Amino acid sequence: MEVKLIDHVFDPFEKLYAAYRTCYSSDTPIEIWDKIRSEAIPKERIRQFIAGRLKTGHSSPLEQVVLWFAIAGVSRSLSHQFVRHRIGISFEQQSQRYVRFKEDRLEYVLPDSWKRKGLEDEFQALVGNITRLYARAIEAGIPPEDARFVLPNAAPTNFQVVVNFAEMLHIADLRLCLRAQWEIRRMVALMRAEIRRVLPELAEHLQPKCGERRQGYCDESHEDWAKCPLGKVRPHKSTLLELYSQHGSQEVRVLGEKEFEEVERREQLDG
Questions:
Q1: How do residues 56-103 score in pLDDT, each as one tens digit?
Q2: Which residues are catalytic?
Q3: What is the Cα Rg of the chain in Å?
Q4: Domains of the chain with bracketed CATH
Q5: SS in 3 state form for the chain?
């Protein structure tokens, strides 16, 4: 697996500052940018301001920080998961129709679990037979889009990806969690490492959803939480609810139509 940050938006902190300031300032965006470019606002002040805004959970300006990644040597099993992220991300993926794979270029992704269980030889024998059958199909004139029908989820694929930082946070929420499949978890960890290399102030917010910079607790099953090493340092939602039931100011009840009607009534009064 190879993951490389190819590029990122120019001057990301200045763009973030301008985006946040547009929301909170009476200045126009042009006036804000004039102050940035004249260096009337020190760069350190810009970074401190952004750090404060990130703590509030105001994430929409993060959509204006865009990152480009090159990703190679991952499996089709991973790609089927990855492309389910659809908002704030765009993919270009290696085609199995327009690329005719050669036997010596089909390096299948082998999970370590097959090695640990002593089944690596059987795995390699199977994918070797698949590769030879695929090559025979191509030589026989079967179109690549039909020959690919024999290729397994272990077949390798490559991506170029453009993603904004708000979606990158969401991806990290889900895919850095221990419950995520190992391969996509490793890929996202490498994406985080690449971002950390050039934008460490932003990369520190890329955590699994239980991280202190994200929602702060685990909302998976209690059984999964108990098995996770992070469970030693992150609370489970049931613990928080139990504490609230003991020390909270009011009873926690199931939301019903009565509560929604009360919200609507108050909105009408406020209006």
A1: 878 889 999 999 999 999 999 999 999 999 999 999 998 988 888 876
A2: 175
A3: 24
A4: 2-70+160-203 (3.30.1360.170), 97-154 (no CATH), 222-270 (no CATH)
A5: CEEEEEEECCCHHHHHHHHHHHHHCCCCHHHHHHHHHCCCCCHHHHHHHHHHHHHHCCCHHHHHCEEEEEEEEEEHHHHHHHCCCCCCEEEEECCCCCCCCCHHHCCCCCCHHHHHCCCHHHHHHHHHHHHHHHHHHHHCCCCHHHHHHHCCCCCEEEEEEEEEHHHHHHHHHHHCCCCCCHHHHHHHHHHHHHHHHHCHHHHCCCCCCCCCCCCCCECCCHHHHHHCHHHHCCCEHHHHHHHHHHHCCCCCCCCCHHHHHHHHHHHHHHC
